[in-house]
Amino acid sequence: MPPETVPASANPDLKALFLGFSAVGLSGFGGVLPFARRMLVDEKRWLTAEEFNAQLGLCQFLPGPNVINLSVLVGKRYQGVAGAIVAPLGMLAAPFAIVLLLALLYDRFGSLAPVQSMLRGIAAVGCGLLFATAWRMGAAIKDKAIFLPFTAFNVAAIAWLRWPMPSVMLAGLVLSGGVAYWKLGRQ
Amino acid sequence: MSVVGQLFLEFALLSFVAFGGATALLPEMHRVVVENHHWLDDATFTHLYAIAQAAPGPNVLVVSLIGWEIGGLFGAFATTLAMCLPMSVLIYLLIDRWESFSGKRWQQALSLGVAPLAVGLIFSGATLIGQSAGFGVGGWLLLAAVLAINLRLRGLHPLWLIAAGAVIGLLGLV
Hints:
The complex is a heterodimer.
Chain A: H1 14-27, H2 33-43, H3 49-61, H4 66-109, H5 113-139, H6 144-160, H7 165-186
Chain B: H1 3-15, H2 26-36, H3 42-54, H4 61-100, H5 105-133, H6 137-152, H7 158-170
Helix pairs in contact in B: 1-4, 3-4
């Protein structure tokens, strides 16, 4: 990465990385990505908008939790190995503690009927939000006639036929990536 | 092998196919945790997903909850670490390489090719939660309403919907 792409004011130390990503982790409900973007690009200027998109692109292409991967990259960039460890720790530590506290409450009260009804209501909402996410991601795909059949293939294989995901993904990636490669060559 | 060791191995393997993040892994986590090992039942799996939705933090924390229910505190550490560590190390090592390949045809093809598959995974995850929750008519209606509202009103914070879902659930309508 050439030095001139680094925003001038930014040079966070380990503490700043930890605190910055803690704030992101704690403010995100139902996905922290928008909050990560606001902190990194708008508030702290640790990344420019273009850098954010490029690095997020890699994180979204690779498997694994996207925002964790992104925090590793930002941490590495400013503080090397130590930064790459501290940034994801900051993102995870406080929410991890909160979630385990909720788990303690669940173990204690989870068998009560009102708690179960409440959780079913939340699950229905969460499920609706997931469908909305899938819908939006699908709408953002270009050349839908060519690529959405691969989405359908994936849903049929995994949700309906219950084939194991690693082999389905491998086959899908070869086919879908192959078609994309062929299409890119024709442009 | 201890349960914690098994959890670590299973979730580390899963992390390599988590295209689209932890949410995309829900069907495969369900297979491993509910169907293969019988560590959790359908209802508990759904409840844990709901708790993760209602809590702040990255989506990946649903695996911490699953780890906690199966193996206690060490289970929670094992699943969380297993899900985050392998790809974090890989991306740390790969980033410079990847940036030097930017614009190459095969790189663009991979990025284009993985997107529709990730959509399929998220869609499958949503389908699976719907199935294992065993929603009644009210649940599916709520789900459809949330889908419509979230797509129409982008500015509305999802936390409002989650709070509404908790209330509607408490009233026994789901």
